[in-house]
Design brief:
Blueprint (H helix, E strand, L loop, with lengths): L2 H4 L6 H17 L3 H6 L10 H4 L13 H13 L5 H10 L7 E5 L5 H9 L4 E6 L2 H13 L5 E4 L12 E7 L7 H14 E12 L1 H5 L2 H7 L4 H6 L2 H7 L3 E8 L3 E7 L4
Parallel strand pairs: 1-2, 1-4, 2-3, 4-5
Antiparallel strand pairs: 5-7, 6-7
Helix pairs in contact: 2-5, 5-8
Protein backbone atom coordinates (compact mmCIF):
# COMPACT_ATOMS: atom_id res chain seq x y z
CA UNK A 1 0.00 0.00 0.00
CA UNK A 2 1.35 3.41 -0.96
CA UNK A 3 0.61 5.33 2.24
CA UNK A 4 2.50 8.43 1.21
CA UNK A 5 0.22 8.83 -1.83
CA UNK A 6 -2.91 8.17 0.23
CA UNK A 7 -2.07 10.92 2.70
CA UNK A 8 -2.93 13.46 0.00
CA UNK A 9 -6.65 12.97 0.67
CA UNK A 10 -6.24 13.88 4.34
CA UNK A 11 -7.01 17.38 5.60
CA UNK A 12 -4.03 17.73 7.92
CA UNK A 13 -1.19 16.31 5.85
CA UNK A 14 1.45 18.86 7.01
CA UNK A 15 0.62 18.15 10.64
CA UNK A 16 0.77 14.40 10.06
CA UNK A 17 4.27 14.58 8.61
CA UNK A 18 5.38 16.34 11.80
CA UNK A 19 3.63 13.95 14.17
CA UNK A 20 4.45 10.67 12.42
CA UNK A 21 8.02 11.06 11.26
CA UNK A 22 9.80 8.99 8.63
CA UNK A 23 10.68 6.09 10.95
CA UNK A 24 7.11 5.55 12.10
CA UNK A 25 5.76 5.90 8.59
CA UNK A 26 8.21 3.23 7.43
CA UNK A 27 6.94 0.90 10.17
CA UNK A 28 3.37 1.38 8.98
CA UNK A 29 4.46 0.45 5.46
CA UNK A 30 5.67 -2.95 6.65
CA UNK A 31 2.26 -4.03 7.96
CA UNK A 32 -0.02 -6.24 5.87
CA UNK A 33 -3.09 -4.26 6.91
CA UNK A 34 -5.62 -6.53 5.26
CA UNK A 35 -4.26 -9.66 6.89
CA UNK A 36 -3.87 -8.03 10.30
CA UNK A 37 -7.32 -6.42 10.30
CA UNK A 38 -8.93 -9.69 9.18
CA UNK A 39 -7.74 -11.29 12.44
CA UNK A 40 -10.17 -9.08 14.36
CA UNK A 41 -13.13 -9.11 11.98
CA UNK A 42 -16.32 -10.76 13.20
CA UNK A 43 -17.84 -12.54 10.21
CA UNK A 44 -21.42 -12.00 11.40
CA UNK A 45 -21.01 -8.26 11.93
CA UNK A 46 -22.78 -5.84 9.57
CA UNK A 47 -21.49 -2.28 9.59
CA UNK A 48 -24.35 0.16 10.25
CA UNK A 49 -25.06 2.79 7.61
CA UNK A 50 -24.32 5.71 9.96
CA UNK A 51 -20.76 4.38 10.20
CA UNK A 52 -19.95 2.89 6.81
CA UNK A 53 -21.41 5.76 4.78
CA UNK A 54 -19.38 8.60 6.32
CA UNK A 55 -15.94 10.02 5.59
CA UNK A 56 -14.71 10.75 9.12
CA UNK A 57 -11.95 13.36 9.28
CA UNK A 58 -12.31 13.78 5.53
CA UNK A 59 -10.90 10.31 4.85
CA UNK A 60 -12.66 8.37 2.10
CA UNK A 61 -14.11 5.23 3.65
CA UNK A 62 -14.06 6.68 7.15
CA UNK A 63 -12.58 4.39 9.78
CA UNK A 64 -12.78 1.28 7.63
CA UNK A 65 -9.30 1.62 6.18
CA UNK A 66 -5.70 1.72 7.34
CA UNK A 67 -5.22 5.44 6.69
CA UNK A 68 -7.74 6.25 9.41
CA UNK A 69 -5.88 4.07 11.90
CA UNK A 70 -2.50 5.55 11.00
CA UNK A 71 -3.65 9.14 11.25
CA UNK A 72 -6.00 8.87 14.23
CA UNK A 73 -3.48 9.58 16.99
CA UNK A 74 -2.11 12.66 15.25
CA UNK A 75 -5.59 14.08 14.70
CA UNK A 76 -6.69 13.38 18.26
CA UNK A 77 -3.58 15.02 19.69
CA UNK A 78 -4.22 18.10 17.56
CA UNK A 79 -7.90 18.20 18.59
CA UNK A 80 -7.27 17.81 22.34
CA UNK A 81 -5.53 20.95 23.56
CA UNK A 82 -3.63 21.65 25.68
CA UNK A 83 -2.51 17.99 26.00
CA UNK A 84 -4.25 14.80 24.90
CA UNK A 85 -2.42 12.66 27.46
CA UNK A 86 -3.33 15.06 30.26
CA UNK A 87 -6.98 15.09 29.17
CA UNK A 88 -7.15 11.29 29.07
CA UNK A 89 -5.48 11.22 32.48
CA UNK A 90 -8.39 13.24 33.89
CA UNK A 91 -10.64 10.32 32.98
CA UNK A 92 -8.34 7.89 34.78
CA UNK A 93 -8.28 10.10 37.87
CA UNK A 94 -12.09 10.26 37.93
CA UNK A 95 -12.39 6.48 38.40
CA UNK A 96 -13.88 5.54 41.76
CA UNK A 97 -12.69 2.46 43.64
CA UNK A 98 -10.85 -0.49 42.17
CA UNK A 99 -12.73 -1.89 39.17
CA UNK A 100 -12.02 -5.50 38.29
CA UNK A 101 -13.67 -5.59 34.84
CA UNK A 102 -13.36 -2.56 32.58
CA UNK A 103 -14.81 -2.01 29.12
CA UNK A 104 -13.45 0.79 26.91
CA UNK A 105 -16.09 1.45 24.25
CA UNK A 106 -15.00 2.86 20.90
CA UNK A 107 -11.42 2.33 22.00
CA UNK A 108 -9.92 3.46 18.68
CA UNK A 109 -6.17 2.93 18.70
CA UNK A 110 -6.23 1.99 22.38
CA UNK A 111 -4.75 5.11 24.00
CA UNK A 112 -7.23 5.18 26.90
CA UNK A 113 -7.41 1.39 27.07
CA UNK A 114 -3.67 1.12 27.66
CA UNK A 115 -3.84 3.80 30.37
CA UNK A 116 -6.69 1.91 32.07
CA UNK A 117 -4.67 -1.31 32.19
CA UNK A 118 -1.63 0.54 33.50
CA UNK A 119 -3.73 2.14 36.24
CA UNK A 120 -5.48 -1.13 37.17
CA UNK A 121 -3.08 -3.96 36.23
CA UNK A 122 -5.13 -6.62 38.04
CA UNK A 123 -8.34 -5.74 36.21
CA UNK A 124 -9.67 -7.45 33.10
CA UNK A 125 -9.65 -4.73 30.45
CA UNK A 126 -11.53 -4.99 27.16
CA UNK A 127 -11.18 -2.55 24.28
CA UNK A 128 -14.03 -2.64 21.77
CA UNK A 129 -14.10 -0.84 18.42
CA UNK A 130 -15.98 -1.11 15.15
CA UNK A 131 -12.86 -0.62 13.03
CA UNK A 132 -10.58 -3.67 12.78
CA UNK A 133 -7.84 -1.35 11.51
CA UNK A 134 -7.98 0.64 14.72
CA UNK A 135 -7.66 -2.60 16.67
CA UNK A 136 -4.45 -3.46 14.79
CA UNK A 137 -2.92 -0.25 16.12
CA UNK A 138 -4.37 -0.80 19.59
CA UNK A 139 -2.90 -4.30 19.83
CA UNK A 140 0.50 -3.00 18.75
CA UNK A 141 0.42 -0.40 21.54
CA UNK A 142 -0.49 -3.02 24.14
CA UNK A 143 2.27 -5.35 22.98
CA UNK A 144 4.81 -2.55 23.10
CA UNK A 145 3.71 -1.77 26.67
CA UNK A 146 3.67 -5.51 27.54
CA UNK A 147 0.04 -5.35 28.64
CA UNK A 148 -2.58 -8.11 28.46
CA UNK A 149 -5.69 -6.48 27.00
CA UNK A 150 -8.60 -8.14 25.19
CA UNK A 151 -9.47 -6.46 21.88
CA UNK A 152 -12.93 -7.00 20.44
CA UNK A 153 -14.43 -6.03 17.10
CA UNK A 154 -18.01 -4.96 17.60
CA UNK A 155 -20.78 -2.41 17.97
CA UNK A 156 -20.86 -0.15 21.00
CA UNK A 157 -24.67 -0.29 20.92
CA UNK A 158 -24.77 -4.10 20.76
CA UNK A 159 -21.59 -5.54 22.25
CA UNK A 160 -22.78 -9.10 22.80
CA UNK A 161 -21.20 -9.10 26.26
CA UNK A 162 -23.04 -10.47 29.29
CA UNK A 163 -25.25 -8.17 31.33
CA UNK A 164 -24.24 -6.83 34.76
CA UNK A 165 -20.58 -7.79 34.37
CA UNK A 166 -18.66 -4.49 34.20
CA UNK A 167 -17.56 -2.36 37.13
CA UNK A 168 -16.50 0.47 34.84
CA UNK A 169 -17.25 1.50 31.26
CA UNK A 170 -15.35 4.30 29.54
CA UNK A 171 -15.96 6.02 26.22
CA UNK A 172 -13.37 8.53 25.02
CA UNK A 173 -14.20 10.66 21.96
CA UNK A 174 -16.92 8.26 20.83
CA UNK A 175 -20.27 10.03 21.05
CA UNK A 176 -19.49 12.86 18.63
CA UNK A 177 -18.88 10.13 16.01
CA UNK A 178 -22.51 8.95 15.86
CA UNK A 179 -26.06 10.30 15.56
CA UNK A 180 -27.77 11.11 18.89
CA UNK A 181 -30.28 8.29 18.49
CA UNK A 182 -27.40 5.81 18.31
CA UNK A 183 -25.73 7.45 21.31
CA UNK A 184 -28.92 6.74 23.26
CA UNK A 185 -28.71 3.08 22.28
CA UNK A 186 -25.08 2.95 23.40
CA UNK A 187 -26.03 4.35 26.81
CA UNK A 188 -28.78 1.75 27.14
CA UNK A 189 -26.16 -0.90 26.39
CA UNK A 190 -23.88 0.60 29.05
CA UNK A 191 -26.72 0.37 31.55
CA UNK A 192 -27.24 -3.29 30.65
CA UNK A 193 -23.55 -4.15 30.98
CA UNK A 194 -22.78 -2.33 34.22
CA UNK A 195 -23.16 -3.98 37.58
CA UNK A 196 -25.49 -2.15 39.98
CA UNK A 197 -23.52 0.86 41.24
CA UNK A 198 -21.10 0.60 38.31
CA UNK A 199 -19.51 3.74 36.89
CA UNK A 200 -19.67 5.21 33.39
CA UNK A 201 -17.13 7.82 32.25
CA UNK A 202 -17.55 9.74 29.00
CA UNK A 203 -14.78 11.95 27.63
CA UNK A 204 -15.69 13.95 24.55
CA UNK A 205 -16.03 17.40 23.02
CA UNK A 206 -17.35 20.17 25.25
CA UNK A 207 -20.90 20.55 23.93
CA UNK A 208 -21.56 24.17 25.01
CA UNK A 209 -18.21 25.31 23.58
CA UNK A 210 -18.66 23.42 20.30
CA UNK A 211 -22.04 25.12 19.77
CA UNK A 212 -20.15 28.39 19.54
CA UNK A 213 -17.32 27.04 17.39
CA UNK A 214 -18.68 25.77 14.09
CA UNK A 215 -15.26 26.41 12.55
CA UNK A 216 -13.80 23.55 14.63
CA UNK A 217 -16.39 21.11 13.33
CA UNK A 218 -15.67 22.29 9.79
CA UNK A 219 -11.91 21.97 10.33
CA UNK A 220 -12.05 18.35 11.46
CA UNK A 221 -14.79 17.36 9.00
CA UNK A 222 -16.83 15.39 11.51
CA UNK A 223 -20.23 14.35 10.10
CA UNK A 224 -22.08 14.20 13.45
CA UNK A 225 -20.31 16.78 15.61
CA UNK A 226 -22.85 19.53 14.96
CA UNK A 227 -25.81 17.45 16.13
CA UNK A 228 -23.72 16.15 19.04
CA UNK A 229 -22.92 19.72 20.10
CA UNK A 230 -26.59 20.71 19.99
CA UNK A 231 -27.55 18.01 22.50
CA UNK A 232 -26.65 17.16 26.10
CA UNK A 233 -24.91 14.04 27.36
CA UNK A 234 -26.46 14.72 30.77
CA UNK A 235 -29.96 14.62 29.26
CA UNK A 236 -29.17 11.37 27.46
CA UNK A 237 -28.02 9.80 30.73
CA UNK A 238 -31.12 10.99 32.59
CA UNK A 239 -33.31 9.28 30.00
CA UNK A 240 -31.58 5.98 30.74
CA UNK A 241 -32.01 6.62 34.49
CA UNK A 242 -28.34 6.93 35.38
CA UNK A 243 -27.69 8.76 38.64
CA UNK A 244 -24.92 10.93 40.12
CA UNK A 245 -24.50 12.58 36.71
CA UNK A 246 -21.80 15.24 36.65
CA UNK A 247 -20.12 16.94 33.69
CA UNK A 248 -17.11 19.22 33.85
CA UNK A 249 -14.92 20.95 31.28
CA UNK A 250 -11.41 19.57 30.81
CA UNK A 251 -8.77 21.17 28.67
CA UNK A 252 -9.85 23.76 26.15
CA UNK A 253 -12.62 22.03 24.20
CA UNK A 254 -13.33 18.73 26.00
CA UNK A 255 -15.69 17.61 28.74
CA UNK A 256 -15.75 14.68 31.15
CA UNK A 257 -18.99 13.15 32.39
CA UNK A 258 -19.35 10.65 35.23
CA UNK A 259 -22.52 8.69 36.01
CA UNK A 260 -23.56 5.59 37.91
CA UNK A 261 -26.04 2.80 37.42
CA UNK A 262 -28.47 2.71 40.31
CA UNK A 263 -27.73 0.16 43.04
CA UNK A 264 -31.15 -1.48 42.90
Amino acid sequence: MQLAQSFGQFLLKPILSTFLGAEKLQWFETIDWQQESDRFCQAHLTYPHYYSSQNFHGITGGYLNAIAAITYDAVTAFASPPSEIWIRQQLIQAIAGQPTRILDLGCGTGSTTVMLKQAFPQAEVIGLDLSPYMLVMAEAKAKQAKLDITWQHGLAEETGLAANTCDLITAAFLFHEMPPQVSQLVLQECWRLLKPGGQLLILDGDQPKLRRADWLITLFREPYSKVYAAESVDDWLNKVQFEAIATQSVGWISQLTSARKTES
